[in-house]
């Protein structure tokens, strides 16, 4: 009986060994990625052959992860030692043999780094904003994908391919908000390993009023210096860069006004009334019978004026840059006359007002002693809105016309020294006034 019992035990032991040996196909019988061996039909290891979750273990490591790794090596036919949770030389040798056949795939443990988000944080309703996200992939070699949640349930997706390692990349997004409020758009950057980093900022959307239209009109004529005769027909011209529809009777319409200059020493804008010349004009020019208006406020007489052109019903306007003159006849201007200077003394840089008569609307020159400044651009195109006042600054030095030639002459300037200087006016007709004295002090 004992003899039969011994045989039975030996038979059971042999069957158990055979069961273990065929239950799991050996590693060299499995193709990478196959669940069953193409040679034996047995199931391959349940742990992926390219699993890198144990690649950080080394001699001296202990614990359940070591035990699980040893069991995987043993099931794969690489470890013939004990599964004891201790990473020793035998386990290390088996691991090296395993990794020779199934090299581990490196694992990226670094999420992308977001360097910043640039863009507006205050917007009007329906105003479009542009934001740029800059990020880099620490590992590189792949691509970064960018997503953004705007906060009003609109999403945008995009990706940028990495060009180098590490790769710094950026993505640009545009968006507008239809409702006032405070929003927190969140930008997410994800690398090829699925690791992501988020950043956000606050955007306040508040102004629901439409933006103030840009002044697109430019008055071309009269724009300063012209002399128009009462009763003659002259063309008022302007340009407008506002987009319009290409169709008959489409586009903007304009109102044209004339602004008189002020003739009193206590003038402000309220004393410079605008008189309406024309209303609802189409195109960019208007033939005006000089002097005619649609207003009963004041009248156009001899004097200095500016023209204003506006898009009807808007504040989109432009005014002549300088005054032009209107007269009842061609004026043959006589020599100007200086009545007095104010002040009559002071250091260089002092602002002096000349009061007199016969000054031109534009093109007056100031002669200051023998310094030659009447040839300087700063002193040879002075304007007088009323023909009786001019203003200039006491010059710092003399002036040579050849300074503005090319090549310029190399003549040194002489600083204006203290002393008495004769002041006179040359009008646009070339007529010279009388002289009055100004004392330059230190």
3D architecture notes:
It is built from three helices and 26 strands. By secondary structure, it is mainly β. It folds into four domains: 100 residues, no CATH class; 93 residues, Immunoglobulin-like; 111 residues, Immunoglobulin-like (Sandwich), CATH 2.60.40; 104 residues, Immunoglobulins (Immunoglobulin-like). Strand 8 and strand 9 form a beta hairpin. The strands form seven sheets. Strands 12, 14, 15, 17, 18 and 19 form a six-stranded mixed sheet that branches.
Query: Can you name the CATH architecture of the largest domain?
Result: Sandwich
Specify the biggest β-sheet: 6 strands, mixed
The averaged pLDDT comes out at: 77
Oligomer: single chain
What's the domain count?
Answer: 4
Order of helices and strands: HHHEEEEEEEEEEEEEEEEEEEEEEEEEE
Report the uncertain regions. Answer: 15-52, 154-167, 264-271
The coarse silhouette is elongated
Per DSSP E runs of 2 or more residues, the count of β-strands stands at: 26
Strand-pairing-aware structural class? mainly beta
CATH class of the largest domain: Mainly Beta
Rg (CA only): 46 Å
Q: From the 3D structure, determine the CATH topology of the largest domain.
A: Immunoglobulin-like
Q: In percent, how helical is the residue content? A: 10-25%
Q: First CA to last CA: what distance? A: 141 Å
């Amino acid at each position: 009986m004992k003899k039969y019992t011994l045989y039975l035990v030996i038979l059971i032991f042999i069957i158990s060994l055979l069961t273990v040996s065929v239950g799991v196909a050996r590693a060299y019988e499995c193709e990478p990625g196959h669940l069953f061996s193409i040679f034996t039909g047995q199931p391959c290891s349940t742990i992926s052959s390219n699993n890198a979750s144990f690649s950080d273990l080394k001699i001296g490591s202990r614990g359940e992860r070591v035990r699980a790794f040893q069991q995987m090596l043993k099931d794969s036919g690489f470890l013939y030692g004990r599964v004891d949770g201790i990473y020793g030389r035998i386990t290390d040798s088996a691991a090296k043999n395993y990794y020779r056949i199934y090299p581990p795939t490196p694992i990226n443990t670094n999420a992308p780094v977001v360097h910043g988000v640039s863009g507006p944080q205050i917007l009007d309703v329906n105003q479009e904003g542009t934001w740029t996200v800059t990020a880099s992939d620490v590992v590189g070699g792949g691509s970064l994908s960018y997503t953004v949640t705007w906060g009003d349930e609109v999403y945008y997706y995009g990706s940028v391919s990495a060009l180098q390692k590490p790769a710094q990349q950026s993505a640009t997004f545009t968006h507008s908000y239809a409702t006032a409020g405070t929003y927190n758009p969140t930008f997410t950057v994800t690398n090829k390993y699925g690791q992501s980093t988020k950043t956000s900022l606050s955007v306040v959307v508040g102004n629901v009023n439409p933006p103030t239209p840009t002044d697109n009109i430019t008055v071309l004529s009269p724009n300063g210096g012209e002399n128009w005769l009462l009763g003659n027909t002259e063309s008022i011209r302007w340009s407008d860069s506002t987009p319009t529809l290409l169709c008959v009777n489409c586009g903007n319409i304009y109102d044209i006004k004339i602004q008189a200059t002020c003739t009193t020493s206590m003038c402000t804008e309220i004393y410079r009334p605008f008189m309406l010349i024309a209303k609802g004009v189409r195109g960019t020019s208007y033939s005006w019978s000089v002097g005619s208006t649609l207003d009963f406020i004041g009248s156009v007489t001899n004097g200095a004026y500016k023209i204003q052109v506006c898009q009807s019903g808007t504040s989109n306007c432009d005014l002549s840059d300088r005054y032009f003159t209107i007269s009842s006849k061609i004026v043959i201007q006589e020599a100007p006359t200086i009545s007095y200077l104010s002040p009559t003394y002071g250091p260089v840089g002092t602002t002096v007002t000349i009061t007199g008569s016969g000054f031109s609307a534009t093109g007056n020159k100031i002669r200051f002693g023998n310094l030659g400044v009447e040839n300087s651009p700063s002193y040879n195109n002075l304007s007088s809105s009323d023909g009786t006042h001019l203003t200039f600054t006491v010059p710092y030095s003399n002036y040579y016309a050849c300074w503005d030639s090319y090549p310029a002459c190399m003549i040194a300037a002489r600083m204006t020294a203290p002393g008495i200087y004769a002041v006179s006016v040359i009008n646009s007709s070339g007529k010279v006034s009388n002289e009055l004295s100004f004392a330059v002090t230190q």
